[in-house]
Description:
By secondary structure, the protein is α+β, with helices and mostly antiparallel strands. It is 40% helix and 25% strand. It has one domain (25-150): FAS1 domain, CATH 2.30.180.10.
Amino acid sequence: MSTPRFLVLAAAVAALAGCATSSTPVSVTDTIAGQSQLSTLNGLVTKAGLGDTLKSGGPYTVFAPTNEAFAKVPAKTMDALAHDPAKLKAVLAYHVVPGKVMAADVKNGNAKTVNGANVALSKAGEFVTVEDAMVQTADISATNGVVHIVDAVLIPPAK
Length: 159
C-alpha cells in the first residue's frame, strides 16, 4: 500500500520540478534572487540600492559570485564594504558589463564595466573567465540581460 503512495508522491514531485525549471525569464535582479547560491550577492545588491537598476535597466551581463566566493573574501574586506555603500556599489558594478554577452559571444580581451573599469574576459573552448574568476554556470537568461555564475569576487583596481 505504501508503494502506490510513494509513486504518486514521486510523480507529483517530478511534475513540480518540471514546472520550476521551465519558468519564463525574469529580470536580472529576480534571476539573482532566484538562485540560492547567490543569496549573499542578492543581499548586497539590495543593500547597495542596485536592485531597481538591475530590474528595469539594461541589458546587462552580470558575473555573479557565489556564496562560496564571498566566503573566500577576507572578513575585514567584507566589513569595510558593509560600512561603505559607495565602495560596495563600486565593487558590485565591477561585476556588471553593459549589454547581453552570452558565453558563446565572449571574445578574449577587455570589457568596460558599469563602474568604468575594464575586466579581462577570456574564452578557451567551453571555459569562460572574467579576471581570475571561472564561470561555473553560464547563460542564465533574464528579460534585461544574462547572468553568469562565477567562483570568485572581483575587486576593482584602486582609483
